[in-house]
Amino acid sequence: MAPTPDAFAPWTHTRLAALNAQFEPRSPKVVLDWAADTFGDDLVQGTGFGPSGIVIMHMLADLQPGTTVFYLDTDLLFPETYELKDELAETVDVDVTRVHGGLSLEEQAQQEGEELWNQNPDRCCHLRKVKPLKNFLEDKRAWITGLRRDQSPSRADAPILKWEPQCSVLKINPLAPWTRKQVWRYLFDHDLPYNPKHDQGYPSLGCVPCTEPVDDADGYSRDGRWSDSDKTECGLHTS
């Protein structure tokens, strides 16, 4: 049985450790059901419409229809990502919400220089992802992500629940224990759409200038991102 919801209790290390231990062997739906009961309309999911995010969207539509599912529109996403977003918005019972920092690419070029993603990718990610995320989550209490431990070495110890200090929300990673195989099995079992770029050698899809196909289909799910640098994260999951 899931823990009794208590939206006002502090998220202490001890409490989170106990909840994580209880949720670790349970299904992601148990985690999401608890989150929906605990946070209600203050619960949001963030996604780039990757396989994990789509699985969570589908589960949420069943547990709490109309949940806000937001994406960070950097103006640099693949055309296929925008098309998939439209398809999911029409077919899955969630509220797909665009989050944008308000800074156009032209304005960014004037203020920061041309192709900032090449000159200073961390700064570009901060302006187009991290800052808009913080602004959006200011009045929220819980943020669901599709983060999984098998996606990269930097995510190998990701807990299911974690207090996120940079945004002052509880971060919920319901698929943290799942493998890529489990995610794709769920997609196929439920006949869910996915980005066709995944069939073209792209295990992960972010912004067009910072994402490349890879040759090793058995590598990490985050391979192909910022492949010309030591950068591995955009800054959303680094606290």
Low-confidence stretches: 1-9
Write down the overall mean pLDDT: 88
Q: Sheet bearing the most strands, described? A: 6 strands, mixed
How many whole angstroms does the radius of gyration measure? 17 Å
Overall domain count: 1
Number of helices: 8
Provide the structure class: alpha/beta
Q: Class in CATH?
A: Alpha Beta
Distance between the termini: 31 Å
Q: Strand order within the widest sheet? A: 3-2-1-4-6-5
Give a description of the structure.
The chain is globular. It has one domain: HUPs (Rossmann fold, 3-Layer(aba) Sandwich), CATH 3.40.50.620. Helix 3 packs across helix 8 (180-189). A six-stranded mixed sheet has the order 3-2-1-4-6-5, with helices on both faces. Mean pLDDT is 88; it is low at 1-9. The protein has helices at residues 13-23, 28-39, 51-63, 79-91, 105-112, 116-119, 121-136, 180-189; strands at residues 43-46, 68-72, 95-99, 142-144, 161-164, 169-172. The longest helix is centred in the middle third of the chain and has 16 residues, at 121-136. Strand 5 (161-164) and strand 6 form a beta hairpin. It has eight helices and six strands, in the order H-H-E-H-E-H-E-H-H-H-E-E-E-H. With 239 residues, the protein is of the alpha/beta class. 36% of the residues lie in helices and 10% in strands.
